[in-house]
Specification:
There is one protein chain. This protein is an alpha+beta fold. It contains one helix and six strands; from the N terminus they run E-E-E-H-E-E-E. A six-stranded mixed β-sheet has the order 1-2-3-6-4-5.
């Protein structure tokens, strides 16, 4: 199934917010803008990372995948793998130390909107 989440972030290209097959959910890389202000980014890598994580949670919540509590209540317990474009360790606060997803970090020369970070997820329905 191909999912577009009502109230979700505006895609920067023609793609779905998430694609689901056989219980796996592949969440498109999210940018640090908001649905209300596409293309407008917060200042700095920490605030951009927080915005990206909020967008990821919006997509997961729209799919009824738990954004369960851990650490500061921002956990993403159904995430199995996360790919990061950019460089920031702020994302760690969103995952319990004993349930961190697999990680791939990709160095890039530029992202849409000149963002500093983009993160995608692979999840599996419990």
């Amino acid at each position: 199934m191909f999912h577009m989440i009502a109230g979700g972030p505006k895609p920067v290209a023609p793609f779905s917010h998430a694609v689901e097959t056989d219980g796996f959910v592949f969440v498109t890389g999210q940018m640090p803008d908001t649905p209300a202000t596409p293309g407008v980014l917060p200042d700095g890598i920490v605030e951009q990372t927080k915005a990206v994580m909020k967008n990821l949670k919006t997509v997961l919540n729209g799919l009824n995948l738990a954004a369960s509590t851990c650490c500061d209540g921002e956990g993403l317990s159904d995430a199995l793998q996360r790919r990061l474009c950019g460089d920031d360790e702020t994302y760690q606060q969103y995952f319990a130390p004993d349930r961190r997803p697999a990680r791939t970090c990709v160095g890039v020369t530029g992202l849409a909107y000149d963002a500093l970070i983009e993160i995608d997820l692979i999840c599996r329905r419990p």
